[in-house]
Specification:
The chain is built from 22 helices and ten strands. With 488 residues, it is mainly alpha-helical.
Length: 488
């Protein structure tokens, strides 16, 4: 099996699984593939995942920049897009734009240190793909599921069920669409231009790729200077005239070897000698495959949430919170802003629909919480399990139940007990921490209506009260965030 074929198979598997992780709404994918985001280089660095970092660095020193063509979903997406250009021999060698590459890397580092999350998140390749998959691909996936669910209903089948199509988030959608269009233009015209001029992760890996043991090498005696290698190199890094390869840009895709009709190119440890030592391609391919294939955990389906009744209600409007809410495990809004890459995986995976990207200019795409469509269930720790960058620390359900991310606030003028003169108590009945009790509005009047009283010390900010509150469009009770999370 050729190097190109091995690389293609591994890339397809990785790309399909990561995409499924973003679009899946059943909870199955994250059980199998939650490890894949954690081996993305930038996310591993932010999470201080020493094992993943070591594997990726050592892998690059051995195999070259296979990360970009096998592991990074944005890199693989560019290869998929480039296939739509049917023009043969469509590439040519060009010199590296080193000034642009290092400038983009410097901008990312400065943005990370300065805490300018929106700039940092725009440059992160895995995060860019996450936004595209979540805002563009997931709605299509859900629509297809709903079509199948409608067909199944007519056949009295419960194989599929309808899922809610939540409105896609404006600013993040615009950023995702613009990114996708830019990728399409660059990939169709010039292949891996984005990877080798803009992507800071590619530039970072290029420092190690220069010294890799396995490289694409020329056998000068066999080369006929036909230029087929240069014309099929999507990284534009092969100069057939001088028989040189810019290893800082080569992503080890294998296209050049596959197209060379004279056997003048090989993926080997050293330059071919005059005796033309035979290269066992199958052994190299097996070595490459063995280094990149990983195992996964058993999958399980999540249960469909069945909160609320069947009556059609007016949509709730999110309250204006002075301090945004971030998930338990994120420690604080500032900590979240410094570590989060804005990949939107937690937003996509949240089974309770409480996470959504921020529209704040300085923290665009940073996941925040709101409770119009659900509440943060104390037993759910999905976001902490899938976060690849360590922005949301892993925690169990017991630990989560003791973390206070905010506290409930009662808005007297919105409460149906007073506006409609009816009995309610929804907030108290559904509070999982027992932080709300119903008390007389007027202690001296036996017939006084019962209204909620909040014990802020016991409230964990889960939002159950805000979600079940019947007041529309604004809830009579909402959760105000805490700048720093507390343990109770």
């Amino acid at each position: 099996m050729t190097l190109k074929r091995i690389r293609t198979i591994l890339a397809v598997v990785m790309f399909v699984c990561i995409t499924w992780l973003f679009v899946d709404f059943t909870g199955t994918a994250y059980q199998w593939f939650s490890w894949m985001p954690k081996i993305q280089l930038l996310e591993a660095i932010l999470a201080v995942n020493v094992v993943a970092i070591a594997i990726l660095v050592v892998g690059t020193l051995i195999f070259g920049r296979v990360y970009c063509s096998v592991i990074c979903p944005l890199g693989i997406l560019q290869d998929v897009i480039a296939r739509f250009n049917r023009r043969k021999n469509k590439y040519s060698y060009s010199k590296a734009l080193s000034w642009l590459r290092y400038t983009m890397l410097g901008v990312m580092v400065v943005a990370l240190v300065a805490g300018v999350g929106s700039v940092f998140q725009l440059l992160a390749p895995y995060s860019a793909y996450g936004r595209i998959a979540t805002t563009m691909f997931q709605p299509i996936w859900k629509a297809g599921n709903n079509v199948l669910a409608s067909i199944a209903e007519h056949s009295d089948s419960y194989l599929f069920y309808h899922v809610e199509q939540i409105a896609t988030f404006g600013v993040v959608l615009i950023i995702a669409v613009v990114t996708f269009i830019a990728l399409v233009i660059l990939a169709v015209r010039n292949g891996r231009t984005y990877c080798n001029t803009i992507c800071p992760v590619g530039t970072l890996l290029s420092f190690f790729a220069r010294f890799s043991f396995l490289k694409i090498r020329f056998n000068v005696e066999k080369c006929k200077n036909c230029s087929m290698c240069s014309k099929n190199c999507k990284a534009a890094c092969i100069d057939y005239k001088t028989h040189t390869v810019d290893y800082s840009r080569c992503v080890t895709c294998g296209n050049c070897i596959d197209k060379c009709k004279f056997g003048a190119l090989s993926y080997s440890f050293s330059t071919s000698s005059k005796k033309d030592k035979a290269v066992d391609a199958s052994k190299r391919s097996f070595l490459l495959a063995s280094a990149l294939v990983s195992t996964a955990a058993m999958a399980q389906k999540k249960e469909k949430l069945m909160d609320g009744g069947i009556a059609e209600l007016e949509e709730k409007v999110a309250p204006e919170r002075q301090t945004p809410l971030t998930p338990p495990g994120s420690l604080s809004y500032d900590n979240m802003a410094k570590r989060c890459t804005g990949c939107q995986l937690c937003v996509s995976e949240c089974p309770n629909h409480v996470l959504r990207p921020s529209n704040d200019l300085m923290h665009l795409m940073l996941p925040t919480m709101s409770y119009e469509r659900g509440y943060c269930r104390p037993e759910c720790t999905r976001c902490s399990e899938v976060c690849p960058a360590g922005a949301i620390k892993p925690l169990d359900d017991v630990e989560k139940s003791s973390i206070q991310i905010g506290h409930a606030v009662w808005i007297k003028k919105n409460c149906v007990v007073l506006t409609d003169e009816v009995e309610c108590g929804n907030c108290a009945r559904h509070c999982p921490s027992g932080a709300i009790e119903m008390v007389p509005l007027d202690e001296n009047n036996e017939e006084s209506p019962m209204v909620p009283a909040i014990n802020e010390a016991a409230c964990i900010g889960c939002g159950a009260c805000e979600y079940v509150c019947p007041s529309r469009p604004f809830s009579a009770i909402f959760v105000e965030g805490h700048e720093v999370h507390r343990k109770i």
